[in-house]
């Protein structure tokens, strides 16, 4: 048994196992020697941890390297399928992707950062590799995406300040909003019109519109957004047409949540 800096009781071996898994994720796989340079364990103890994790499917041995194992696939699917928002929105996300031909994203917030719950790609969708790579990222900020702005627009000011205090407003592209006053004014605009815009703030050449999804009790559960090349999101299509469509789909998702129509 160990105690962390906050005085909480923790299990040292479990903590080390989680450190190993996080290292394998961030490194994209590693040899025993490479892991030993990252984890404060002897090679013998490290090998024992890896063997235990491998026996349970959380690690696999590939030649001289270790990588995350297939058990995470079934665990991840179980967790996602247990989320009411996913079950209420999956069909609508797929339908909007087909109708628009573009990328559609179902986003939630976790610890002040963006988490991708589900995505669907229409027949004209671009940037698939970029968006799929984003699923692996753990530091996706909320302030430069349409979905993230939508979620933050439903937070009270103290909670917005807490997120910004913790994660800041880093510049992601030259168009990202990094000034606090400007960003808070942007959130007020989002609240007034019911949707957020991302004008190349996340990826150059890509615009997006998003709208918050509220649960039956009025709390924000996430957001729905649609991304497309700037050439296809111009004028009224960017400021009126697609925002209206996204909000219509959000309304359907919210009705699904209210009525319990969340079958897969």
Domain module count: 2
- Intertermini distance: 42 Å
Main β-sheet, spatial strand arrangement: 7-6-10-9-8
CATH topology name of the largest domain, in short, is Beta-Lactamase
Q: Order of helices and strands, N to C?
A: EEHEHHEEHHEEHHHHEEEH
Rg (C-alpha, Å): 21 Å
CATH superfamily of the largest domain: GAF domain
Kindly report the average pLDDT value.
90
Q: Number of helical runs?
A: 10
Largest sheet: 5 strands, antiparallel
Number of strands: 10
Shape descriptor reads globular
Query: CATH first level of the largest domain: which class?
Result: Alpha Beta
Query: Mind telling me which CATH architecture of the largest domain this is?
Result: 2-Layer Sandwich
Oligomer: single chain
Helix content: 40-55%
How would you portray this structure in words?
With 264 residues, the chain is of the alpha+beta class. It has two domains: 72 residues, Arc Repressor Mutant, subunit A (Orthogonal Bundle), CATH 1.10.10.10; 177 residues, Beta-Lactamase (2-Layer Sandwich), CATH 3.30.450.40. It contains ten helices and ten strands. The strands form three sheets. The chain has a five-stranded antiparallel beta sheet, sandwiched between helices. Helix 7 packs across helix 9. The longest helix is centred in the C-terminal third of the chain and has 25 residues. The termini are far apart. The mean pLDDT is 90.
Describe the protein's topology:
Layout: E1 2-3, E2 9-10, H1 12-27, E3 30-31, H2 32-36, H3 43-55, E4 59-62, E5 65-68, H4 71-81, H5 84-100, E6 103-110, E7 113-121, H6 128-134, H7 146-153, H8 157-167, H9 180-193, E8 196-199, E9 206-214, E10 220-229, H10 235-259
Antiparallel strand pairs: 1-2, 3-5, 4-5, 6-7, 6-10, 8-9, 9-10
Helix pairs in contact: 1-3, 5-10, 7-9
């Amino acid at each position: 048994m160990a105690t962390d800096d906050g005085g909480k009781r923790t299990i040292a071996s479990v903590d080390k196992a989680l450190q190993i898994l996080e290292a394998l994720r961030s490194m994209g796989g590693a040899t025993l020697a490479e892991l030993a340079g990252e984890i404060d364990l002897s090679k013998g103890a490290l090998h024992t941890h890896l063997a235990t994790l491998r026996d349970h499917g959380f690690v696999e041995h590939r030649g001289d390297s270790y990588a995350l194992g297939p058990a995470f696939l079934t665990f991840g699917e179980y967790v996602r399928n247990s989320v009411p928002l996913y079950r209420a929105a999956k069909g609508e996300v797929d339908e909007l992707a087909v109708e628009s031909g573009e990328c559609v994203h179902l986003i939630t917030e976790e610890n002040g950062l963006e988490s991708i719950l589900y995505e669907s790609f229409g027949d004209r969708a671009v940037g698939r590799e970029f968006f799929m790579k984003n699923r692996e990222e753990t530091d996706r900020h909320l302030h430069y995406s349409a979905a993230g702005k939508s979620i933050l627009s439903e937070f009270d000011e103290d909670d917005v300040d807490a997120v910004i205090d913790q994660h800041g407003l880093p510049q992601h592209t030259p168009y990202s909003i990094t000034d606090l006053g400007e960003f808070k004014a942007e959130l007020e605009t989002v609240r007034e019109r019911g949707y957020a815009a991302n004008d190349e703030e996340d990826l150059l050449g890509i615009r997006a519109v998003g709208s918050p999804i509220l649960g039956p009790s009025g709390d924000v559960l996430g957001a729905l957004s649609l991304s497309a090349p700037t050439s296809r999101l111009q004028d009224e299509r960017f400021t009126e047409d697609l925002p209206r469509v996204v909000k219509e789909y959000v309304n359907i998702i919210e009705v699904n949540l209210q009525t319990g129509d969340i079958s897969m």
